[in-house]
Design a protein that fits this description.
heterodimer; A: six-stranded mixed beta sheet; four-stranded antiparallel beta sheet; about 40% helix; B: mainly alpha; MetI-like fold; 9 helices; about 0% strand
Chain lengths: ~250, ~220
């Protein structure tokens, strides 16, 4: 594999708040078309890592490359860099005063300088992609949680990103709404849309992830193919984590 | 003794002056208030300190003192000659800016920072995010507080009688003195203020209802 196919390269990223170190030297890469899932207990630095990677939070140390360009060099390019990274938030973060369609089209107009009609047409296409064409004119407060998150995904997709970040996209959803969001994410994964997904949805990880990165104490404790990490991890913390999650799933299925 | 009715048109034409004072003051205050709210929330420490001082200054000094200070003191001392009406509008505006900034500030803070984060994640600059995402919502939320500010301004505008601005109270006073009959004119002036206050807040409330974000009932 040539280096030009590496979409995201992360080298020794560190981030701390006052006396607590949240990220303590994280390194990994994602190739074009790969799906990587980040797991780990809460407080292990997963969300901070995602925020550092699109510069919503400034890392203290380390280097990040997007499509071969180092984005940690200066910070005058943040607005250009972020356009290439689709970010899906745990709490959706939709724009409450705009319809689903406008939520998707506004950045196309404001950032990509498309005409209103052009932006609308593209936004509609993206809403169709997440099966929401019939809800296009509803406002966020009129949508279910699952629909909101799919609008958020469409909003990110519309910018035509080179990589998608998902920050626990189903954690704020009622159980019966998780499926519709995961289905969309799986569909996108099958289309080989390069993605970095923070999630505890093991089923999703198992079926689409190329690799699981397990984080703990601000570091990657263990990494490998999903089956190996879930079934037979080497690290004790990882073993315990998946044992607990498996118990939870079995209880739900009963 | 002249009949009060003869002076009615004279007093009524004061409405135009009162509304002019209010419209001018609210407009200046709107621009100042908006910029200061944004500065207070998103600006650096120095900017925040300056705005804090401004708000504190204009909220602590009685309006009448401000009117005298600017009309007899600051404007002449700095070489500007403003007529009473222009000076009054400026003072009402500067003062209203201090109050309006706190209305907008509260509204922006109540929105939280998640939507701005989403805007930034899409590649919008902070300024664009504030303009396209935050302000359209913050202004809606501000409307009830803003209708209070309108009501206050209508009533405060009468203090400009002290500079001889020909608004409702000034004219009423002239009539009361000329006719030696204060009861009816002042009652009438009071009635005019009731109508103006009620009518204006009603209009703002209608605007609030019309611009409500669908589905967000009770949450705004």
């Amino acid at each position: 594999m040539t280096s030009s196919e590496i979409v995201l390269k992360v080298e020794d990223v560190e981030k701390g708040y006052s006396d607590k170190k949240v990220l303590n030297g994280v390194s990994f890469e994602i190739d074009k078309g790969q799906i990587k899932v980040i797991c780990g207990s809460s407080g292990s630095g997963k969300s901070t890592l995602l925020r550092c990677l699109n510069l919503l939070t400034r890392p203290d140390k380390g280097r990040i490359w997007l499509e071969g360009e180092e984005i940690t060099k200066g910070l005058d390019n943040v607005n250009r860099v972020r356009q290439k990274i689709g970010f899906v938030f745990q709490e959706f973060n939709l724009f409450n005063h705009l319809t689903a369609l406008r939520n998707v089209s506004i950045a196309l107009q404001v950032v990509k300088k498309m005409s209103k009609d052009e932006a609308k047409a593209l936004a509609m296409k993206e809403l169709e992609r997440v099966n929401l064409e019939n809800e296009a004119h509803k406002y966020p407060a009129q949508l279910s949680g699952g629909q909101k998150q799919r609008v958020a995904i469409a909003r990110a997709l519309a910018m035509n990103p080179v990589i998608m970040f998902y920050d626990e996209p189903t954690s704020a959803l009622d159980p019966q709404l998780i499926g519709e969001v995961l289905d969309v994410m799986k569909k996108l994964a099958k289309e080989k849309l390069t993605s970095l997904v923070v999630t505890h949805e093991i089923g999703f990880a198992r079926s689409v992830a190329d690799e699981i990165l397990f984080m703990g104490d601000g570091k990657i404790l263990e990494r490998g193919p999903p089956n190996q990490i879930i079934e037979n991890p080497a690290h004790e913390d990882v073993r315990q984590f998946f044992r607990r999650i498996n118990e939870l799933y079995r209880r739900e299925q009963r | 003794m002249a009949v009060f009715a003869d002076f009615l048109p004279y007093i009524l034409s004061g409405i135009v002056w009162t509304l002019g004072l209010v419209a001018g003051g609210l407009s200046i205050g709107f621009v100042i208030g908006l910029f200061m709210a944004i500065g207070q929330i998103y600006g650096g420490e120095e900017i925040q300190a300056v705005i804090h001082g401004y708000v504190w200054f204009f909220r602590s000094i009685p309006l009448l003192v401000l009117l005298f200070l600017f009309y007899f003191g600051l404007f002449p001392a700095s070489g500007y000659k403003l007529d009473p009406l222009a000076c009054s509008i400026v003072v009402l505006g500067l003062r209203s800016g201090a109050y309006q900034s706190q209305i907008f500030r509260g509204a922006i803070i109540s929105l939280g920072d998640t939507q701005l984060q989403a805007a930034r994640a899409l590649g919008m600059s902070r300024l664009r995010g504030i303009f396209h995402i935050i302000l359209p919502q913050a202004l809606r939320i501000s409307l009830p507080g803003w209708s209070n500010e309108y009501a206050t301004m209508i009533k405060d505008s009468s203090l400009t009688f002290a500079l001889g601005v020909l608004e409702i109270l000034t004219r009423t006073r002239y009539v009361a003195m000329a006719t030696h009959e204060p009861l009816v004119p002042y009652f009438f002036a009071g009635g005019l203020f009731i109508v103006l206050t009620y009518g204006g807040t009603k209009i703002v409330n209608i605007l609030y209802e019309r611009t409500k974000i669908p589905g967000l009932v009770g949450k705004l």
